[in-house]
Design goal:
about 45% helix
Length: about 190
């Protein structure tokens, strides 16, 4: 029988992202965030390509990005509600980490596996923050997918894209539990 890590399993069975709008100060220190990023980087990574990187966004950068969302949204002709929603995650946040997918050339590792690895980093970052006692939430939204925004605001190159903005802070309220998948409807057991 394998050794069971009941505390880790209990955490995973009860983990719950915290809405970004409910996160406030204090935020993780640089040392605390480094530990969280270190844990997040321990994800599946076929070929050891590290097809991702982190951009830590502190309050002044978040303010700048909120203003860029508004300017970019107006130049694209987006409606006011769309602009406000896109801006809100940066206005409300005190600390966020942009997880950037960086496709690496590889004959052995398909690009889709690099995308999956980057998604695993995002979830690992959320889980590491939650396990460390912080609130965390993974968001994207239209700014994450707008080339003008990510190139101007984050300095991304053409082979890079935002996988998510992970917002971190102190939670002010625990959200109610939400419905979870019915395993019987999504699981097929194959015996032969």
């Amino acid at each position: 029988m394998p050794d069971r890590n009941q505390a880790a399993l209990d955490f995973l069975l009860s983990r719950r992202s915290r809405p970004a709008k409910t996160l406030t100060t204090p935020i993780p220190s640089r040392d605390a965030l480094t530990e969280i990023l270190t844990a997040a980087a321990r994800c599946p990574d076929h070929g050891k390509l590290e097809p991702w990187r982190f951009i830590v966004l502190e309050r002044p950068a978040l303010t700048r990005l909120a203003e860029l969302v508004e300017a970019r949204g107006r130049s694209l002709g987006r409606d006011e509600a769309d602009i406000a929603k896109g801006r809100k995650q940066f206005d409300d946040s005190h600390l966020a980490v942009a997880v950037i997918e960086v496709q690496k050339p590889s004959e052995k590792i398909p690009s889709i596996e690099q995308t999956y690895s980057t998604g695993a980093v995002c979830l690992g970052l959320v889980n590491a923050a939650l396990a460390a006692g912080w609130g965390a939430n993974w968001l994207s939204g239209w700014p994450a997918h707008d080339r003008g925004f990510v190139e101007t605001g984050l300095g991304l190159e053409t082979h890079e894209r935002v996988a998510g903005f992970i917002h971190l802070g102190t939670e002010t309220s625990t959200p109610p539990e939400r419905p979870r998948p019915d395993l019987d409807t999504i699981t097929t057991w194959v015996s032969e």
